[in-house]
Amino acid sequence: MQYEGDFSPPAGRFAVVAARFNSFIVDQLTDGALDALARHGVPADAADVVRVPGSFEIPVVAQRLAKSGKYAAVICLGCVIRGDTDHYDHVAGAATSGIMTAAMNSGVPVIFGVLTCDTLEQAVQRAGAKAGNKGFEAAVTAVETANLMAKLPK
Ligand code: INI
């Protein structure tokens, strides 16, 4: 037996956790994620958007949502841009490991759609320009992984 997720319309609800920090980028990621969900057959009223102050706050909220039992997957969206200090490393590292922890603690797919960029230009390219829209890609990953989880033996 082989198991693999697919892109058929998934059952259940989806949550998008979006940081307000660098909102001009994250809003584009959020639009991309909601567009991908809609294009994969998720009704608009089956997608909830939860906004948090910054990427550092994503994991605790994502874990709460994932553990609620109400969502097939949680999609985390943020944008961390390197500055003059090592602040970037702390925020990006905490968001990354916290999002994985939320997935492992809940058993629900918690998808990593946080941009970690050296420059604003890199972020723009990944939020709907030359390098695509990473929010859209994160939501497609959420659909595939949610469908895979539904197929796996209990
Ligand atoms: N939050 C981000 O999402 N991106 C950033 O680039 C960022 N920088 O650079 O500081 C950022 N900081 C805020 C952080 O996520 C928390 O909201 C804050 O530290 C309060 O806990």
Describe the structure.
This protein has 154 residues and is of the alpha/beta class. The chain has one domain (13-148): Rossmann fold, CATH 3.40.50. 47% of the residues lie in helices and 24% in strands. The chain contains 5 helices and 6 strands. The strands form 2 sheets. A 4-stranded parallel β-sheet has the order 2-1-3-4, with helices on both faces. It has a two-stranded antiparallel ribbon with strand order 5-6. Helix 1 links the parallel strand 1 and strand 2. Helix 1 packs across helix 5. The longest helix has 20 residues, at 87-106. It is globular and about 50 Å long. The two termini are 15 Å apart. 44% of the residues are buried. The model has no long low-confidence stretch (mean pLDDT 98). The protein binds 5-nitro-6-ribityl-amino-2,4(1H,3H)-pyrimidinedione (INI). 5-nitro-6-ribityl-amino-2,4(1H,3H)-pyrimidinedione binds at residues 19, 21-22, 53-57, 78-81, 83, 87-88, 91. Residues 19, 21-22, 53-57, 78-81, 83, 87-88, 91 line the site of 5-nitro-6-ribityl-amino-2,4(1H,3H)-pyrimidinedione.
